[in-house]
Write the structure tokens for this entry.
Amino acid sequence: MAKETKRMKAMKALLPKTKDPVPLADAIAILKQFNTTKFDQSVEISMRLGVDPKMTDQIVRGSVVLPHGIGKSLRVAVFAKGEKAEEAKAAGAEFVGAADLAEKIKGGWTDFDVCIATPDMMGFVGPLGRTLGPRGLMPSPKAGTVTMDLTKTVHEYKAGKVEFRNDKGGIVHGVVGKISFDADKLLENIQAFIQYVNTLKPASIKGVYVKSVAISATMSPGIRVVG
């Protein structure tokens, strides 16, 4: 078992003494005290949902543009041709192509954060499922990454649009900003994420939908918050 560092012990000493979740504003105030690294840590949210991950009608996935972004400009790859390819380039996509882009990815290259495609390009994208799927990069109509509106979609992801899907444990994870953000901006981003996930409650769920919510930084313990 790894030995707990002095830094981790110091952070845990700042955690609420109660096991009950705390108000979000209080949790953010504690989290800001964890800003003791040489890099700007990402702030992440984890929401444990009362879904059955094995049921296809209970999969919770989506994407949301947060009020203050996430403090990072994503690298965007777009499958498009002709005028749509030019539109994607003009919108700021770093990588644009069709068969050439597919061949590059088949060779193992995935040096991008999000992949977008126009519907007519899915013939090139489909065979890449084994490469893109496990990395969460496969374009999907549900996530809004299979679209003809490339300008809007590329701009949203360049601004830090957050895409998510519940994992095998029924937990949704998402980046909601940087620890250097003002507390008010973190508060608004986290509230926006929670509110959006709440709108995605599957109709087949009869019990509690959101079981618990926690926030953390890249190198910090989690803090349970009132969801």
Remarks:
- The mean pLDDT is 92.
- The CA atoms of residues 45 and 215 lie 5 Å apart.
- The first strand starts at residue 42 and ends at 49.
- The beta strands are 42-49, 61-64, 76-79, 95-97, 114-117, 162-165, 171-178, 210-217, 223-225.
